[in-house]
Amino acid sequence: MHAPSEILKYIEQAIKNTTYPSHPGSLYEPISYIMGLGGKRLRPVMLLMSADLFGGDLQAAVPAAMAIETFHNFTLIHDDIMDNAPLRRGQQTVHEKWGRNTAILSGDVMMVEANKHITRVDIAVLKPALDTFNATAQGVCEGQQLDMEFESRNDVSIEEYIDMIRLKTAVLVGGAMKLGAIVAHARMPDADLIYQFGENLGIAFQLQDDILDVYGDPEKFGKRVGGDIISDKKTFLRLKLQQLASQEDLRKLSDLVRAADTDKISQVTALYDRYLIKEEATVMMQYYLHKAFAALSDIQVPEERKRELILLADLLMNRES
Amino acid sequence: MHAPSEILKYIEQAIKNTTYPSHPGSLYEPISYIMGLGGKRLRPVMLLMSADLFGGDLQAAVPAAMAIETFHNFTLIHDDIMDNAPLRRGQQTVHEKWGRNTAILSGDVMMVEANKHITRVDIAVLKPALDTFNATAQGVCEGQQLDMEFESRNDVSIEEYIDMIRLKTAVLVGGAMKLGAIVAHARMPDADLIYQFGENLGIAFQLQDDILDVYGDPEKFGKRVGGDIISDKKTFLRLKLQQLASQEDLRKLSDLVRAADTDKISQVTALYDRYLIKEEATVMMQYYLHKAFAALSDIQVPEERKRELILLADLLMNRES
């Protein structure tokens, strides 16, 4: 079994070894640019760890890992256009740097590059790998659409929210891990279980993100604490508060929409505290985390092979940024 | 051998039989919408005719045809965003009807749908089919990028222009026909020859488009004759004129940029006439048409099997709209 830090080297090496055509330059430069911005490479690492779990050859799993990481970065380019985001990982977004049209088109050709990566898996597993990859890609698009639609809706339920983050974030983690299992020639029931592990872990991860955005340590969080509150983002915390708050507090909450940032953060956080929203969110997060570990424990491989994955999951769930 | 009109029925039926998820509605409605706007279905028809040429089962070629038509329509959604186009086939464009962000994302998920179609080909040819499909998709993106870049460049050569239309338009016709050959289990040299036929026919087709835009019969053309002149589009005709015209006529041409539409059309057309630009374009078109037919004649199937394809190519090259 390989530790995440060793596995990361496979990914970084593969990214470094991947070249794109030089012409037209402005179509391909954004791809190298965004792939080079770094990040935790969580999805491809999880994919290779899944392959490792099932005794697969790591190098043989790299094309699938590159497909997932390339697809993920493509979605970042398009999401940033849709969100009018100026920065990504502290650097200019692609559409800021090259213009909106080139960002659309570079994203499109990047999806083709992702598709090309996935065709390089062992031909014996090509069909199931494609099916998993396409289902994953489709889910992510659905999640992004729901996320955009929720911005203008005032009746989003917690169930709908969980389904949205499942599609937008967790399906890609689950899909990556299922791909890792497939390229390692795991049995299908085990591939489905590792999908469940990844998907539920992904949901827990996103719920933790919602918590950190309010309760993170400003010194360690990396982004401004309270960003979701300022933008009135319908996170789990906000939706839960809307469900539990008294009429009076709901009125107060809706008056806060126009409050100054610092005021708004402190007063919404006070409401969260009053209704124990952090605790509600933590319970929910634990629920999905337990589902994830239950799926992992059902997988038919020796327990010691699961150690690195369990360590990584613990690390992820105890992060501060 | 089947006539194009019979083959079209397979495509229309497949489009009718294809359903998309109902949720999120606004993600999938644009797909049904643009697929339902009609058009000549030229690319999937050419694909099935290619399969037919090589004795393939038409029904078995339908998934590849759907992949190509779905991919083509996806590019229309994104191209229309980039061009700020209000209308497509006389109807509102997707971004006009659903907004820009949904148009980006519907396009993205439509590409996933195209990818799903291509995975449904016979598994024995899945890998070459994917390779051809991805290379085709990549070429189309490159062509669109070059087309956009040419708008702001004043030194586009005719060679570069031909390469741009090859990528933007012709690669998709060639790729469609190669896919038809692959799913019909044609020999690889024949698949490459039918690609050459399609690509060269595609270039000829686009050159004819450039000619029709200036010299088409206003009663039959469907669009406003002179549209390319009004928008100063760098077509083959315009680039050839810039190559041949005297200094004086070049000055005249650049002064016409600010002229009123009707004036501009008549005066640029007069310059085209003076330098025999229509004849130059026709010679170039014939050159690519001959290359197309030379490739077709090298294909190792009985000559009578090629009849429908030759008829269709003749029909396309003698169209008035």
How are the secondary structure elements laid out?
2 copies of one chain form a homodimer.
Chain A lengths: L3 H14 L7 H11 L6 H12 L4 H25 L4 E2 L2 E2 L1 H5 L1 H19 L7 H26 L6 H26 L4 H28 L11 H4 L5 H9 L2 H9 L5 H14 L2 H22 L8 H11 L4
Helix pairs in contact in A: 1-3, 1-4, 2-6, 3-4, 3-8, 4-6, 4-7, 4-8, 7-8, 8-9, 9-14, 11-14
Can you describe this structure?
Two copies of one chain form a homodimer. The first copy, chain A, is built from 15 helices and two strands. By secondary structure, chain A is mainly alpha-helical. Chain A has one domain (4-317): Orthogonal Bundle (Farnesyl Diphosphate Synthase). The first copy, chain A, has a two-stranded antiparallel sheet. In chain A, strand 1 and strand 2 (91-92) form a beta hairpin. In chain A, helix 1 (4-17) crosses helix 4, helix 4 (58-82) packs antiparallel against helix 8 (158-183) and helix 11 crosses helix 14. The longest helix of chain A is centred in the middle third of the chain and has 28 residues, at 188-215. The first copy, chain A, starts with a helix and ends with a helix.
